[in-house]
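We keep the chain:
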Amino acid sequence: MRNLILSATLVAASVFGMTAQAAEPIEAGREYVELSNAVPVSVPGKIEVVELFWYGCPHCYSFEPVVNPWAEKLPADVNFKRIPAMFGGPWDAHGQMFLTLEAMGVEHQVHAAVFEAIQVQRKKLTDPEEMAEFLATQGVDKDKFLATFNSFAIKGQVQKAKELAKKYEITGVPSMVVNGKYRFDLGTAQGPQGVLNVADQLIAKERAAK
């Protein structure tokens, strides 16, 4: 699995600077993969766009200034959400941290700071105490974070996220899934702008099918 992840990352790196033409129609098997078994969405009635990511992934970090402005302008019938990919080791630690912050309702306040700490400041943030110490500098209550991090509820969320990643059949990050049916990434979509183009066309496809 680790080799598959590294391979996908290298592919993403080789095409990261490329941009897909917005007017060019997309095809299953080329820009995206249609999943054999659709995964139920979290908010029925809305078109769901999922980004699977890892705080330790440099391509996920570079994708942030591209995807964030796009996600903020999505129409009301689209639900954008992030799910941490967890393939063991630091992936699991970072994923559990994200889910904890999300459960506490502060993820949106510190998401960028966590990315910056790991990618720029080279903090590992794999130990809960280390996480709590850093997050305290960002206004997050240390004791509440640790209690939430170690709760049964978060352990359940971790298992759910891992199961979703398996159902989406991802092998690397960042990966995107639209409405639990279509998966694509920087490699298949030919760069970050290509990812948004594919997402826009698949959102339109799902909207038209309603």
Remarks:
- The longest strand covers residues 47-53.
- The chain has a mean pLDDT of 91.
- The beta strands are 33-34, 47-53, 78-84, 175-178, 182-185.
- The longest helix spans residues 192-209.
